[in-house]
């Protein structure tokens, strides 16, 4: 798939950093990350737990204010917009969460759940709201009669359809989906992925999909951004990143993802856990776990440099772990003390 993005992004993060004060220290959750969302396209944000995916998404949704950088919506800087001016814009960006059971209020009927954003934004009278609720229910493949029932009366997949209907109700332009299928049975996952695809096409939506591994990303995204300890280590068109990862961390993530066409793929087992985001390593953030790290990686920080059209990688030795075979022959260095 070639990437030809001429239009202005509907939403963008520009050099965003988010830090939290913890105890006496500072935790850097997101470090100088830029990302652009375009209508009709999906960006997948990938990384281990704690890599900063949700924090970045929250900053883009303006649920938090970044410490540095800018958030743009339709070209407008909304980074420091006060809530009263942000509120009318909020209907344009909606979220779908991992666990539809936890994210849907169990005391509300499905009708109320879906109508809630419409009411909150004053989008129509009772009759118009009812009509819209029926419309989005139909769009997600649920009967109009669902409005009278409660979320608990539905299966996991149906509940995720309800969450999607709720996100769609106010006709947003951006949907952030945080692990939208990982809580669902494998048999249901494909249905929800294809539903999200159909809805994206019919509504021309921009998606940001958060995922901790690359398995889902393959089917759902045009572009992938790989985060490690709050930094982008690699980004590019999904098909290219997945077939030829340039960063050893991406290669490691991919090696953990079984693919039917490459069952022989060797696993790169990364030694140790990610370092604490409070005490981030000097040099390359990944060097303490990197199987190909050299001395320079511990002292100098690689910048995110172009690695082909629409691709970028932050590594002094990009491409060294590009294929399963190379991975297998590369010794995995055990870090002392880990
Ligand atoms: N409100 C907060 N206060 C302090 N630290 C926080 C806060 N929110 C997030 N963090 C920290 O920021 C880092 C990034 O967390 P974040 O939730 O963004 O990662 P993630 O990649 O989304 O992980 P997961 O896949 O587990 O959701 C973590 O170290 C986390 O502990």
TrEMBL record:
Keyword ATP-binding part of the UniProt annotation: yes
Where the record annotates domain ABC transporter, the positions are 13-254
Which terms under GO biological process does the entry name?
peptide transport; transmembrane transport
Superkingdom to which the source organism belongs: Bacteria
Instruction: Return the Pfam families for the record.
Output: ABC_tran, oligo_HPY
Q: Which CDD domains match?
A: ABC_NikE_OppD_transporters
PANTHER family attached to this UniProt entry? D,D-DIPEPTIDE TRANSPORT ATP-BINDING PROTEIN DDPF-RELATED, TRANSPORT ATP-BINDING PROTEIN
What is the protein name for this chain? Answer: Peptide/nickel transport system ATP-binding protein
């Amino acid at each position: 798939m070639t990437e030809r993005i001429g239009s202005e992004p509907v939403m963008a993060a520009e050099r965003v950093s988010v830090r939290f004060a913890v105890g006496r220290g500072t935790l850097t959750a997101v470090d100088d990350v830029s990302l652009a969302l375009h209508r009709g396209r999906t960006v997948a944000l990938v990384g281990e737990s704690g890599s900063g995916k949700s924090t970045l998404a929250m900053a883009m949704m303006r649920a938090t204010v970044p410490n540095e950088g800018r958030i743009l919506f339709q070209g407008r800087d909304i980074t420091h917009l006060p809530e009263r001016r942000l509120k009318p814009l909020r209907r344009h960006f909606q979220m779908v969460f991992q666990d539809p059971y936890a994210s849907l209020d169990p005391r509300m009927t499905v009708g109320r759940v879906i109508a809630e954003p419409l009411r909150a934004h004053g989008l129509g009278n009772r009759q118009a709201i009812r009509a819209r609720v029926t419309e989005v229910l139909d769009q997600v493949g649920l009967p109009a009669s669902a409005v009278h029932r409660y979320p608990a009366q539905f299966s996991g997949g149906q509940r995720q359809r309800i969450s999607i209907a709720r996100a769609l109700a106010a006709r947003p332009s951006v949907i952030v989906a945080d692990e939208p299928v990982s809580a669902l049975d494998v048999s249901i996952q494909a249905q929800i992925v294809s539903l999200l695809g159909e809805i994206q096409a019919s509504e021309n939506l921009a998606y940001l999909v958060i995922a901790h591994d690359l398995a889902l990303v393959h089917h759902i995204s045009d572009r992938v951004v790989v985060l490690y300890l709050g930094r982008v280590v690699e980004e590019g068109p999904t098909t290219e990143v997945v077939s030829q990862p340039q960063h050893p961390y991406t290669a490691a993530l991919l090696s953990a993802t079984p693919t039917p066409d490459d069952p022989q793929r060797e696993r790169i087992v990364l030694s140790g856990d990610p370092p604490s985001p409070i005490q981030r390593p000097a040099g390359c953030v990944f060097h303490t776990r990197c199987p190909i790290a050299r001395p320079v990686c511990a002292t100098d920080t690689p910048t995110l440099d172009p690695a082909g059209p629409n691709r970028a990688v932050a590594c002094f030795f990009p491409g060294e772990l590009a294929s399963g075979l190379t991975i297998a022959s590369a010794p995995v260095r055990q870090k002392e003390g880990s």
